[in-house]
Amino acid sequence: xxxxxxxxxxxxxxxxxxxxxxxxxxxxxxxxxxxxxxxxxxxxxxxxxxxxxxxxxxxxxxxxxxxxxxxxxxxxxxxxxxxxxxxxxxxxxxxxxxxxxxxxx
Length: 105
Description:
single chain; mainly alpha; 2 domains; 4 helices; about 0% strand
């Protein structure tokens, strides 16, 4: 049987992460390494399948772009990286990212 990884700094186990969905400390990212990356990739894939992207017909106006940028900043401050990535995809999909200085590509 494979042994669960354990964080050497806080003692948090992979089983605890899987049951709670939270990590114990920053060192957990190193301790759980590839297994954690696989989980994050799976979450992003599941999120992309579950949340359809809104369609942008004529492209957003500058106010929408500014609002999306502020929402991305708020999501990052709240460590809601999935929402920040979703908003970034909206900007990239809108065609605005091809113009210099716009988007977060």
